[in-house]
Amino acid sequence: MYDSFNRKINYLRISVTDRCNFRCVYCMPLEGLEWLPKTDILTYEEIAGVVRQLAPLGLRRLRITGGEPTIRPQLASLIAMLKAVPGVEDIALSTNGVKLPTLAAPLADAGLDRVNVSADSLRPERIRAIARRDLGFDPVGALRAASGAGLNPVKFNVVVMRGINDDEIADFARLTLDHAVHVRFIELMPVGEMAGLTWEHVVPSDEVLDRAAAAVGGVTPSDGPRIGNGPAKYYSAAGAPGTIGVITPMSHTYCGTCNRVRLTADGRLRTCLYGDHEVNLRDPLRAGTPLEPLFVTALANKPKEHNLLQMQVGGLKALSQVGG
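The structure assignment produced for this chain is given below.
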C-alpha cells in the first residue's frame, strides 16, 4: 500500500473509545467532550472486519488507542481477534498505564506484543495535577507490570511542557540507566482546548535532548527499540539498558516518512492526524460494501504533510479524539 507520495502505509492506529479516565491538560478538556453514542462506535467484530479487509493490502502493524483503550471492557478479546488475522505481525497498545497491573498479563496472553505508557511525571502530586484525576498511577509500577508480562519493549511517552514538567527531563533520562525502558520526549502540540497551554510551553527537542544527555553523562545515536513504527529518534548513554528518544512534530516534522493512518472509534479513516480528510468506513462496512476501493482512494488523498504549524488541526477539539 503506497500513497500518492510513494510512502508505504503498513500501520493502522485503532481508537476503540473516545472516553478516558484521565483529563490530561494537553489532551482533553476538564469537563470531557460530547461522547459518541454507543451505536456509532465500532464493535470489536467490526474492527476486526476492517483489519481483515486491509491486511491483504499490506497492513502489518496495529496500535490500539483511545481515549484510554483499557477502560473498554474485554479488550483482550479484541487483541485475540486481531492477532488471528493473517498478515498482522505486531500489535501494540498506547495507555495511561493505570490498569496495567491487572491487565498486562491477560492482554499479553491474548497476543498483545508491547505497550507505550503515557507518563508525564514521576511525582504523585504532579501526576494528579497533569491528569486532573487521582487514580493512584505509578509509572514505575506500570513499567514493571508490562515488562513482567513480556510486553517489551516498554516505552514511556513524556509530553514536555515548559514550567510544568520540564524539570523532570533529567529524572526520566536517568531511568534508562537502570531500566530497559525507552523514554520518548514528545514536543507539546498546541491543539484544541488545552487548559491555557500555548506555544510558550513548547520545549524544542534539541533543548530536551541536551538536558537529557547532560543528566546521563552524554549520549550517542542508537538504533532504539528492536520493534517500532514511530518517528522517534533514539539515543543512549554508554552501557544503559534503555534509550532516550525525541519526537519532534513542531521543530522537525517527519511527514516525509509517515507510514500510518488512523481509524476513529466511530469508524472514520483519518489519513493525517492533523488533516481534515476522513473516509467513513463504518457505514459501508455495516452495509457489506467492500472497503478496498475506499481505502485505495483514501491513500491517494493522504496529504503530503500536516498543517499544525499553521494551527490547522483538522477540526480536532482534543487529541483524545484520535488517540495521538
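Interim note for the steering committee: Residues 48 and 82 are 6 Å apart (CA to CA). The mean pLDDT is 90.
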